[in-house]
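I'd like us to work through together how a protein chain folds, taking it slowly. To get us started, please write out a protein record for me. Label the sequence line and the structure token line clearly, so we can match residues to local backbone shapes. Once you have written the record down, we can walk along the chain together.
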Amino acid sequence: MSEVALRTMKLTEEGLLKDSFTAISTSFGWFNTLELNANRHTLSRSRRKFPWTGGIIQLVERGRDMRLKESGMPEESEWERYFRPKKALSMLGLKKGMVLADLGCGYGTFTLAGAEIVGKMGFVYAVDIERGMVERVGERAAKKGFRNVRAIRGDITSLKSTELPDGSVDFALLANVVHGTRGKIRLLKDVIRVLRPNGRIAILNWKIGKTPRGPPVKIRPTTEGTVSYLVRAGYEDAKITDIPPHHYAVVALRPLAAGVKR
């Protein structure tokens, strides 16, 4: 079966977006391999900024969907089996009355658990760039009777587009997101803007090693690497927490503002 190399492209958006991908297709148009160095947030932004890339991006997204096992994002029913979200969030310090921002919320696995924990006096912002995910989270929240959840379609790599108010969030969660995000330090610095003075951030990643899902091990952030990202972004008191069975998290505090006591 013949293989056709499609080509490698570089998209540059105001000096901030540089995504490249190589896709190899069989003569039937199906992928044997797909090397994608971009996440779904930057792909969607590319489509808006460069309309002529729509067909190419659809091709890449088709290949991405065919490789769900490597991307770590299976169907919803399977995805839910890999987490104990309520226990994890409690371990990381989410409490009743807090405001949670679930950045890159996906199916809302942590959104719904967070809504239960923070209760009626708290609130949850669930942000994702994919319309289908946002709609699904809204449906699930409504079905469970949660009135303290707002699902927002937005690009977490540009939080200003999400309508999250400055200084409005007690707890920002990035679950299984950082490994595929370009400009990690820039993203983490941007999160600081929406955190309250005593706010915290939690980055949850797949453990290094064999797991039933998750991205390729070679691109999974290590615990040391994740701590480094947070420190470089200005966060303080970063601590590593084991999140059984397949994850770990690093929690850190917002940079201490002048005159603010913890």
The domain at 77-253 is CATH 3.40.50.150 (Rossmann fold). The longest strand covers residues 195-206.
